[in-house]
Amino acid sequence: MKTALIGTIALGLLPGAIASPGGFNPDNVVFAQRALPDAPDGYVPTSVSCPASRPTIRSAAKLSSNETSWLKTRREKALTSLKDFFGHVKVGDYDVVSYLDKHSSNISNVPNIGIAVSGGGYRALMNGAGAIKAYDSRTYNASTSGHLGGLLQSATYLSGLSGGSWLLGSIYINNFTTIDKLQTHKDGDVWQFGNSIIEGPDTGGIQILDSASYFKDLAEAVESKKKAGFDTSLTDIWGRALAYQMFNASNGGLSYTWSSIADTTEFKDGNYPMPMVVADGRNPGELVVGSNSTVYEFNPWEFGTFDPTIFGFVPLKYLGSRFEAGSLPNNESCISGYDSAGFVIGTSSTLFNQFLLQINTTSLPNFVKNVFTSILEKLDRADDDIAAYEPNPFYHYNNHSSPYARQTALDVVDGGEDGQNVPLHPLIQPERHVDVIFAIDSSADTDYYWPNGTSLVATYERSLNNTGIGNGTAFPAIPDVNTFVNLGLNTRPTFFGCDSSNISGPAPLVVYVPNAPYSFHSNVSTFQLSTEDKERDNIILNGYEVATMANSTLDGNWTSCVGCAILSRSFERTGTTLPDICNTCFDRYCWNGTLNATTPANYNPTTYLAEADSAGSALVPTMLSAAVAAGVALFTLV
Ligand SMILES: *[C@@H]1O[C@H](CO)[C@@H](O)[C@H](O)[C@H]1NC(C)=O
Ligand SMILES: *[C@@H]1O[C@H](CO)[C@@H](O)[C@H](O)[C@H]1NC(C)=O
Ligand SMILES: *[C@@H]1O[C@H](CO)[C@@H](O)[C@H](O)[C@H]1NC(C)=O
Ligand SMILES: *[C@@H]1O[C@H](CO)[C@@H](O)[C@H](O)[C@H]1NC(C)=O
Ligand SMILES: *[C@@H]1O[C@H](CO)[C@@H](O)[C@H](O)[C@H]1NC(C)=O
Ligand SMILES: *[C@@H]1O[C@H](CO)[C@@H](O)[C@H](O)[C@H]1NC(C)=O
Ligand SMILES: *[C@@H]1O[C@H](CO)[C@@H](O)[C@H](O)[C@H]1NC(C)=O
Ligand SMILES: *[C@@H]1O[C@H](CO)[C@@H](O)[C@H](O)[C@H]1NC(C)=O
Ligand SMILES: *[C@@H]1O[C@H](CO)[C@@H](O)[C@H](O)[C@H]1NC(C)=O
Ligand SMILES: *[C@@H]1O[C@H](CO)[C@@H](O)[C@H](O)[C@H]1NC(C)=O
Ligand SMILES: *[C@@H]1O[C@H](CO)[C@@H](O)[C@H](O)[C@H]1NC(C)=O
Ligand SMILES: CC(=O)N[C@H]1CO[C@H](CO)[C@@H](O)[C@@H]1O
């Protein structure tokens, strides 16, 4: 366990650890097991020797051979977990485990599960974390009656964008760690949001880095990338800052790449779902990111898109190499290290680059502000709200059909900017054959920062352009946002697409899981910069209750209904009749086509359960007014 030892030694030198009386204390042992620090030269993309067959861009007509072969292992392991899940989740008297055994010889027949975690800054990270904690069999008590532990282990895919991508990064770059561990101060001190990301990490009493050194560290990494000849922007600084908060508080995980996830033993062995981070492409010559913008995914092997505007993927490890017309010319070297994990989640969340520009409103000393201002002067400020991917890996690729083929740089932006704030795009690709998607929506659509279905409407409308940008994707019908609010579809989980014969093509059933106030008002502003541990934990617990309907206290049949949603498409394929209880469930949770498009009154729900503690209720009005001020200021900058 070399990694563990290195982590222990490095963090053991912290003043806090030294000061602890009584010498060695096992509670201070830090298990900093992570993905792999395999970038050749820290943050600087660097030329490496090419593999025997030189990397190329491949067509998006099929899944990659990497994904296809990984799925063989993963689907079997997920099936084992699904049987465990149905050990405690009962669907009436029906013997689900025997059903799964009976059909296990053809894995295409058993349920294929995806989970999607929306954007929405730290609110989305924390509410999403609550859902993931509820779905994780490793969470204490989660695999008992009324809970949903094991759903995470049964899933094939897990997607995230913007704030949701910070959650994915926190989990995957830290060796598929648990939410519990991310919440403690024992396991590497990530997720300490009490210090705002502008101040830098605070680990255990004495801040390890003072804010000035923190900014100098951020700047040095980005300047060295620039010196090596790569375009840099505010996104690089932002991504480095995120890496301190999400990966490794002591040195910001400088050398960790997203592609290294594919090289870890645990992932290769198919022990957990495949992570996918979503970002949007700004169309050439356009400033507004509309619903027809290109949607990219970063999976562990590749970066690219199924959209007809590019319809290709580049090996993620060699992003930054000068591809031309789909191949790497002989005189070009292979570049590695461009896909810094911080840069990937920074790209998915470019909307928040602007956080950094608020430094003058903090109480940090002036010399720190000056350090940062001097960093800004060296950046191309025109690129403040985008990540510039230069060289464009899709240069001269699909020349006849791609509007990007003549661009030397790709403008990549926040994954939620096209309105699809839940990252469903990778999960509705027909080649992936996903049966059911758990869509965790922490969007701030309404005046009080609750979701109202806007994101699902965007995905639905995009899919209607089936021969254009939708490119063969299908999606269940989704009503207008007024109907969402009038019918309360955003106050509790709702199923869409229960009747597959009503959809234009094969499409998953969507279990929509909207953020709602169970024990805590989790509707904190998207632009809230810091969150004390207590509030963080309240939001995570609330998210747990959102996913489990308060541990099934709001509906004693809720976990059975989740079981029905999981099994529905599989039962159709195998011509099996769903157990009776599923009819009760579908009557209750499926949107049945009813519309009410009257403009509703302002949506401002009160907590469903007793409020978590006094901090909660008192906090809301102050947070809202502060948030409105910050939000307005930021949106005028964006
Ligand atoms: C990652 O976590 C797994 C499961 O807890 C553990 O067996 C493995 O040793 C860890 N890997 C590393 C590199 O620490
Ligand atoms: C992905 O597949 C390609 C082609 O089969 C192979 O060369 C490459 O090593 C694989 N990548 C990983 C990370 O396994
Ligand atoms: C496996 O199941 C799929 C989906 O129902 C079906 O299309 C395919 O023909 C089956 N394969 C075999 C070998 O039976
Ligand atoms: C996207 O839509 C806008 C307006 O709806 C249109 O002007 C633009 O040409 C479209 N871009 C592409 C690449 O289809
Ligand atoms: C902070 O304020 C100073 C003095 O007004 C100004 O020169 C500087 O550009 C500001 N920095 C940022 C990041 O806005
Ligand atoms: C729903 O959210 C959108 C923004 O995302 C907003 O424009 C609209 O007014 C909201 N409508 C309702 C009924 O909440
Ligand atoms: C459908 O997509 C195509 C290509 O992306 C675009 O040109 C067209 O305007 C879109 N149509 C609608 C109705 O949005
Ligand atoms: C739900 O379960 C969690 C974890 O077991 C527990 O902390 C929480 O108090 C429970 N909430 C309710 C409303 O029962
Ligand atoms: C659960 O569903 C069963 C079967 O439809 C029904 O008889 C029972 O009343 C339901 N229980 C609750 C708590 O809703
Ligand atoms: C459909 O759902 C609405 C409430 O959402 C309910 O009032 C109506 O009775 C349902 N219709 C049918 C046919 O079940
Ligand atoms: C539609 O929703 C409004 C609330 O906005 C409600 O007052 C009205 O009764 C609803 N109409 C029907 C037909 O249910
Ligand atoms: C199903 C479908 O329409 N697929 C199309 C997606 O876009 C590529 C590139 O334009 C086409 O070749 C596919 O036919």
TrEMBL record:
An example GO CC term for this entry is: cytosol
Q: Where is the signal peptide?
A: 1-19
This protein's source sits in the domain of life called: Eukaryota
**Keywords on record:** Glycoprotein, Hydrolase, Lipid degradation, Lipid metabolism, Signal
Question: Top EC class per UniProt?
Answer: hydrolase
GO biological-process terms attached to the record: glycerophospholipid catabolic process
Does the record bear Transit peptide in its keywords? no
Family (UniProt): Belongs to the lysophospholipase family.
What is the name of the protein in this document?
Answer: Lysophospholipase
Organism name: Penicillium olsonii
